[in-house]
Design goal:
alpha+beta, 375 residues, TolA/TonB C-terminal domain, 18% strand, Serine Threonine Protein Phosphatase 5, Tetratricopeptide repeat, 3 domains
Length: 375
């Protein structure tokens, strides 16, 4: 069974998450451990001497509840009942199992009543807004540069002009939504197929999802860009996103993240995408190859401060009929300096271009794993 991969937020490729994301419970939560998500949520409510952060607590409790941790659903319900960290909503608290919230909302008692471990007074202090700055805009532009096909920049609002008119959410809000977003990855990722290529290799399909996060934590203005995927796949993603909400953000704004498919295996597209000059190799075609084997991996020159980085990354790029690469995209989030180094390495190498059955050179897409050895 394929494991659902986390959804990749645009800021994750360009910045280091807050320190709390690196503790053992945070890491275990990201791997699907609901009890670890629950512990992080309680800690954010002021446990172990940690200052209370109700919005962060709501994020971890959402992740735990969506992964099936019933007690966290009750604790999250207490936050909804008090309007702390999330919008005030007795109806939602009732759905999460709080009998007293059902009574206030005029609804029947819950099928399974739950008692929260915390009781909180209603929110009384207004929250301060943290406006996005130039750094947030630059992170969105860097995300577009390395992870979004150029043809999708304008439809997704990832141009400077669009970002200045409709600003991205600040980094603090992007980090805030990550735990519940990871927990929802399975639902959305299973909509997208895994493509099998003519040589037998399998790679997941990818796409980009954009939405606006309102000050009440609700999602609106959803845009889905999934390349070759069918209308049924688009519909599956949209239905999966319908009703999403998160803790109340400090400011809100637009967010973007890549989708990585874990769904059924399908044959890779064998024809050009609309508006593209580059095709996918068909059975019987010769695939492109580096004129000097290993050229890309050996050509990566990591920037200062990243010399020891190692790991495996997957890239997509086009190989034109002249043997030159173009249209580079990364599949995994990496810091911007490393992304630039990998792209420069790809563009520095020459290739034997693909050719059809008659030997005519063809411009094609290729997907390739790259291993960094920390040099």
């Amino acid at each position: 069974m394929r494991r659902a991969l986390p959804l990749v937020l645009f800021a994750a490729a360009c910045a280091t998450p807050r320190a709390s994301r690196q503790d053992p419970d945070a890491l275990a939560c990201g791997r699907g451990d609901s009890a670890a998500c629950a512990r992080r949520g309680l800690t954010a409510l002021g446990g172990d001497g940690v200052p209370r952060d109700e919005r962060e607590a709501a994020a971890w409790l959402m992740a735990a509840c969506e992964r099936g941790h019933g007690q966290s659903c009750a604790d999250l319900g207490a936050l909804y009942a008090a309007g702390r960290g999330v919008r005030q909503d007795d109806g939602r608290a009732c759905e999460l199992g709080l009998a007293d919230a059902c009574a206030r909302a005029g609804r029947p008692p819950p099928d399974m009543a739950r008692t929260p471990r915390v009781k909180l007074p209603p929110e009384t202090e207004p929250e301060r807004s943290i406006p996005p700055d130039e750094g947030d805009l630059q992170r969105a532009l860097h995300y577009a540069e390395f992870y979004v096909p150029a043809r999708d920049h304008k439809p997704l609002g990832l141009t400077r002009e669009a970002l200045e008119a409709d600003p991205p959410a600040p980094m603090s809000d992007v980090q805030l939504v990550q735990p519940p977003l990871d927990a929802r990855a399975t639902r959305v990722a299973s909509c997208l197929p895994v493509y099998r290529y003519p040589d037998g290799r399998e790679y997941p399909s990818h796409g980009v999802l954009s939405f606006a996060l309102g000050r009440d934590g609700r999602v609106s203005r959803v845009i889905v860009k999934l390349g070759e995927s069918s209308e049924s796949v688009q519909r599956c993603v949209r239905e999966g996103v319908t009703g999403w909400e998160f803790p109340r953000p400090a400011t809100g704004g637009r967010m973007w993240f890549r989708l990585t498919g874990t769904g059924p295996v399908a044959n890779a597209p064998a024809s050009p995408r609309p508006g593209d000059d580059i095709q996918y190799p068909k059975p019987g075609w010769r695939w492109p190859r580096e004129k000097e084997p290993g050229c890309i991996a050996s050509s990566v020159r990591l920037p200062r401060g990243f010399e020891g980085v190692t790991g495996h990354f997957t890239v997509q790029y086009g190989v034109n009929v002249d043997g030159r690469a173009s249209d580079f995209l990364l599949f995994q989030p990496v810091p911007t300096p490393i992304a630039r180094s990998i792209r420069e390495a790809v563009y520095s190498c020459e290739f034997v271009p693909a050719a059809d059955e008659g030997g005519t050179p063809r411009a094609v897409w290729t997907i390739q794993p790259i291993r960094l050895l920390g040099h």
